[in-house]
Design a protein that fits this description.
0% strand, single chain, mainly alpha
Length: 132
Amino acid sequence: MAKSTRSKVKRSFRAKKRDEGVYAATEAARLQRLNSKLTAKIDDGDEELAEPVEGDAAQDSNLIAFLDAMELDDSIKSSTNPSRVSTHGPRNSRREEWRKSKGMMPVPKSTRMNRQGLPAARRKSGRPSRRR
């Protein structure tokens, strides 16, 4: 019944296969390969971290210059009147863009009528779409 990959039964059987089953050797080789890759990466990272410690003063001056430049950029932006971009409202679809380029209305006007003589709704309200 449970076919999901989140199913506890399936997960437990997979874990059992990884530990003691057919795939145990493959899983051990994979873990060893990943472990060696991570240890190599950590060893390389330690050397990189050891070098810049001596030049902290140079990095601090670069950081201060960078932060000053950022403050200048913010003050320039606040002094001018930025044009605001509206994010409210419907976005036009590709179909609507094509209809506009041909001179048509983006969304065609509905001419359908319901039984009461009113314009028909776009969706069938009150009617379930799912068969129960």
